[in-house]
Amino acid sequence: MQRSDLAAVQRLECASQKEPWNLQHFTDELENPVASVDLYWHDDQLSGFLCTWLIAGELQIQNLATLPAMRRCGVAVRLLEHVIARSKIFGLTSIWLEVRVSNTPAIALYERFGFSADGKRSAYYPDGEDALIMKHSGIMTYSGE
Questions:
Q1: Going along 21-139, which residue ranges are E strands?
Q2: CATH number of 23's domain
Q3: C-alpha–C-alpha distance, residues 35 and 126, integer Å
Q4: Is residue 13 part of a domain?
Q5: Which residues are catalytic?
Q6: 121 DSSP β-pair partners
Q7: Closest C-alpha to 2, from 22, 31, 25
Q8: Residue 144 located in a structural domain
């Protein structure tokens, strides 16, 4: 992601998330030395993005969003595969994330990548919903859609 992409990223975020990040949050990600925001474009339209931090061999997934019209089309799978492959080059040892306990499609996707539940954060989201902590250690593989 570059500064010129911020408006498109913010539009996608607002279209796809229940509690969207604000523009300043994405600006801060641009300035964070451990952060990466990978974009997926389809026919000149931003269709998804994945915000991650890579710190000491641990990849932390901060935000993954797919344009609602492009869901179930492999956008999130491609973003995850790309980010994981790149992170392995830099010594990836594990991946962590939080996901809404009600977001069963995302949980199923992460499970297909080999993630498992590792705990819960009570009232983690601004609306009071709990977050499921998911972790993956070792070689990352995707078991299909």
A1: 35-42, 45-55, 58-66, 94-100, 116-121, 131-137
A2: 3.40.630.30
A3: 23
A4: yes
A5: 98, 110
A6: 131
A7: 31
A8: no
